[in-house]
Write a structure and sequence with these properties.
Elements (H helix, E strand, L loop, with lengths): L2 H42 L4 H32 L8 H28 L8 H4 L11 H9 L13 H17 L5 H22 L2 H16 L2 H43 L2 H10 L2 H15 L3 H14 L2 H17 L7 H17 L6 H12 L7 H10 L1 H22 L6 H7 L1
Helix pairs in contact: 1-8, 2-6, 2-7, 2-8, 3-12, 3-13, 3-14, 3-17, 9-17, 10-11, 10-17, 11-12, 11-17, 12-17, 13-14, 13-15, 13-16, 13-17, 14-15, 15-16
Length: 429
């Protein structure tokens, strides 16, 4: 191969790498550009921000009306399409326990970290916004009734009752399964609706750089440059805690599964999945690398082939940590005490629900924001702030989400009494 051919090949590789990078991180880069442009406008043209705020409001309204039907179709379709298998019953049951315990640990650990390293409560947002206090002075029994149910069907369609709507969607999915052949037409309808509404939300989220950029311009123009320091603190804390969690907690999980040998095997084979998740920003794209890592570790195929694919959508440590941070920030912005026992209990519950349920929904993280403001009855003004934070921590959150699936498969294999394959283990070592 001559020099010109080598140069041409190198140029093709560079173009492919640039195209891949833009494909994987394009949404984040465009959002950063929108936020940066909005910040410049807010700093140098503060008189124009009142005209930009309606653009942000339009984006949020589109998001609100898109999320409600998407939640129904996505959850109902997922439950309706589940197929039971007694042979896999024990593995699935153990896997579910591992997933739930892991997400709860992530949530509780995040709460402890934020308690030890709190953010300042002197936030500029409260200086320009009148916090809408919609909290009701009622008993715990009344709170449970209000969170879980509504008295009229039409009330389900309000974002203020998101949790009740999620439960209703689950029940519709279960009823569809129990209807057997009589429910086939309805099952096709909700599957089709799931695909359509998923594409609709993708279309709406393409407007995020414009909508959130306009909202950020308004915030900067009315609150001042000190707003940048506010966003930097929770994002910085997330990356510090996320990396600490990545190396320590996952090592502990691997140790509980197969001792020191398990820790060595996990980290030796976790390099490719970690780099894949960071470069692709996608748990789904990391799944093949996780399956290869599981094979090298020696996890039985009967476990890995079930736990890792399901874990791609149902097991998300990074999303759990992100959810706690978003709730913490949202409560600070709305003038509430995050460390109130009732708020902490609800935070862990929301984290569990969002990490497991919203994981299989396109842009499901944004549904988490709706659920947060619904359960805590917050003003919608806090949504852009927590959406921006969630987007900027997404690379590390994805790595935690994806690489946690392999160690979950190790725990599931151990708890079901299975051993690492001697042949695969030997090849790994």
């Amino acid at each position: 191969m001559n020099r010109s051919e080598l140069m041409e090949k190198k140029n093709r590789e560079m173009k492919y790498a640039a195209k891949t990078f833009l494909h994987n991180y394009g949404s984040i880069l465009f959002l950063l550009f929108g936020i940066s442009l909005g910040s410049v406008i807010g700093i140098f043209f503060p008189h124009a921000v009142d005209s930009l705020k309606p653009i942000g409001d339009i984006f949020l309204n589109l998001l609100f009306v898109s999320v409600i039907p998407l939640v129904f179709f996505a959850i109902a379709a997922s439950v309706a399409n589940i197929e039971g298998d007694r042979v896999l019953g024990r593995i699935i049951g153990t896997m579910a326990a591992v997933f739930i315990v892991g997400i709860v640990i992530a949530g509780v650990a995040s709460i402890i970290f934020l308690y030890l390293f709190p953010l300042s409560t002197d936030l500029p947002v409260e200086q320009s916004k009148e916090i809408i206090d919609t909290a009701k002075d009622d008993s715990w029994a009344e709170k449970i009734v209000r969170f879980l149910t509504v008295s009229e069907f039409s009330s389900l369609l309000s974002r203020q009752n998101m949790l009740a709507f999620v439960i209703f969607s689950f029940l519709v999915g279960i009823a569809t399964r129990q209807s057997a052949a009589a429910g086939d037409l309805f099952r096709k309808f909700i599957n089709s609706g799931n695909a359509v509404m998923g594409n609709l939300l993708v279309m709406v989220m393409r407007l995020a750089p414009i909508g959130l950029g306009a909202y950020f311009a308004y915030q900067v123009g009315t609150l001042g440059p000190q707003l940048f320091g506010f966003y930097a603190k929770p994002i910085g804390l997330y990356y510090i805690f996320g990396l600490l969690y990545f190396f320590t907690v996952f090592s502990l999980f691997a140790f509980f599964a197969y001792g020191i040998r398990g820790v060595k095997l996990y980290w030796k084979n976790n390099i490719l999945p970690s780099l894949t998740s960071l470069s692709s920003c996608s748990s789904l794209a990391t799944m093949p690398a996780n399956l290869l890592a599981a094979k090298s570790i020696g996890i039985p195929d009967t476990v890995a082939s079930v736990v890792i694919p399901l874990g791609t959508t149902l097991h998300k440590h990074g999303s759990a940590i992100s959810c706690i941070f978003k709730i913490y920030v949202a409560l600070l912005l709305s003038g509430q005490d995050f460390f109130n026992p009732a708020n902490l209990i609800m935070a862990v519950g929301i984290t569990l629900l969002v990490s497991i349920v919203a994981g299989g929904i396109p842009n499901g993280g944004y549904i988490g924001e709706m659920l947060i403001i619904s359960v805590y009855q917050m003003p919608t003004e806090v949504i852009p702030s927590i959406m921006i934070i969630a987007t900027l921590v997404d690379p590390l959150a994805t790595m935690l989400n994806a690489t946690g699936d392999t160690v979950a498969a190790m725990l599931t294999a151990r708890l079901t009494g299975q051993k690492l394959s001697p042949h695969e283990t030997a090849s790994s070592e």
